[in-house]
Give the backbone structure.
Amino acid sequence: MNGDATKGILGTAFLYTNKDTVSIGVGTLLSGLIKHKIRPYELLEYVKNHSMVRPYIQGGEPVEYLAHLIPEGGYRSMPKIVGNGVLVVGDAAQLVNAIHREGSNLAMTSGRLAAETILLAREVGDFSENTLDHYRVKLMESFVGQDLKKYKDATHHFDKFPQYFETYIPMMNRAFSQMLTVDGSSKWEKQKKILRDMGSFGEKVKIAWDLFRAWKVMT
């Protein structure tokens, strides 16, 4: 869930249906919470009380609650991950793909590659940085390094230009709502209204330019 779920702050919310429970969560930048003076639990309660979410949890009882910080610095925040006798993996290495909300799979892959490198170093009896650098090379060649590099500027871009989450996503939500609501209006009438709601010609050009920039940082 994007946009209203985080009150326009860069981030997402989710609802997972399990066998016996429902998991609901919301994540956003710490800087966004501070800027808008919102506490994490307030944002979660806001999502839980949304008309789309509330029916799933009515009559239910909380089973577990947790909150934690996730290092979403990504590619540009990665520290030195190899040294003499040292390998850095998972969260400590900033291995989080914030755009796709992934971290566990990156951490597990880094752990596997680190273990393989340690076995190699043990075999040759050399735990120097030069030998252990095999881990860094393999990590950056894997999907972990490729994905982090692909989205290296995405989080910064969306944080720098808040209109994506504050304006454009709510605009898209309204447009889809209009198109998918059966109210006797033709699709042509609905499309004309959506175009009018996008503003003047200059505002439409700005939207198009922003969408192009978003596409650039995501591809």
About this structure: The radius of gyration is 22 Å. DSSP finds ten helices and four strands in the chain.
